[in-house]
Amino acid sequence: xxxxxxxxxxxxxxxxxxxxxxxxxxxxxxxxxxxxxxxxxxxxxxxxxxxxxxxxxxxxxxxxxxxxxxxxxxxxxxxxxxxxxxxxxxxxxxxxxxxxxxxxxxxxxxxxxxxxxxxxxxxxxxxxxxxxxxxxxxxxxxxxx
Length: 145
Prior knowledge:
mainly alpha; elongated; 5 helices; 76% helix; membrane
């Protein structure tokens, strides 16, 4: 009969110990990236509800719809990227483009956007762009080491 007794303590003799150590080290390296991507989720949620919190949904319904779609998309992308940050390098570019769209959308979508709508979109878009650049930079620096 096989010896099925469990030894408590050290798992150094486990056949997969080195693989588990490497996987755990990779996970810890991308921890900061996941934190930045979680900020993308928050920015996306804010972008989605910004038309109603800043009160421009009635005056600029097209901009409100644009912000809702982009905000939900950002939140979903941020969620996906925070779940697998080591694979999110390509999606950072998409997030960067969405942040740029948030910045320019008040002038593209609306004829005469109000100050609140412009400030809300520009600040949120700039934050999203910053988050995407920081996450991309962190991922690139982790790949070099």
